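A brief tutorial aside. Many learners find it easier to grasp structure tokens once they have seen a single protein encoded end to end. The record that follows does exactly this for Non-structural maintenance of chromosomes element 1 homolog. Read the sequence first, then the structure, and try to relate runs of similar tokens to stretches of the chain.
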Amino acid sequence: MAYTNVHRAFLQACSNRGAISKQQALDVLIGIYARYGDGDTIPNEDDIIDVVAKINERIYQFDQKIVYTHYEPLEEDFYVFVNLQESPIDLQQNIFTPQELHFFRVLLRELTLSEDHTLTTIICLNLTNDTVNETVKPLPKTRAEQLLHEWSALGYFAVLDEKLHFGPKSVVEFDKYLTKNYSDIISRCCLCNVTIFYGVRCASCPQILHKDCLKKYLRRLTNCPACKELWSVPI
């Protein structure tokens, strides 16, 4: 398959939006096909997989990738455009000020440290007082509110039930960053060995598992994969 305007347009849509749901990705591809593709062909989900694979062949050399991931808080699948470098936050320096990027790091830190990886909006805005040093003024709360909306629109965060969560883009793009900086807190699902931010905790032991992984596991077995006690927590 040649690399065409279909691939270029889909890549641009993914990079501009940061993260798009599987249905949004299909809608985008249908629109792109109408403009650049065969007018008699309506793409399906398999076509998205082929397009993404071809794009990834091209952009991997630039440490970029479109990743397909399941986002547990919404129980929905997403295509996420990510940078694969060690410190992807630093790549935003030409877009956001050092003060704003510090606020972003603080949000990542506090979401990681919170017991359920969520923060209320009020707590988020109060985090603007966490400055780099005494000579740097706190980020204005009005700007902080704007940033929360911008970063949520890009998939870095998600506001659900009036609380801020890690978004699908952060879950994928900052996996290495968070694991490296908070290795004593970040854990991995024992079923898929992927970092777990949101999941289901066993009633008999501290083990937390991805809900999607657990559903597949419980189709075959009924005991916790960690402590082997009968699984009793509803999913």
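Self-check: The mean pLDDT is 89. If you spotted this yourself, you are ready for the next section.
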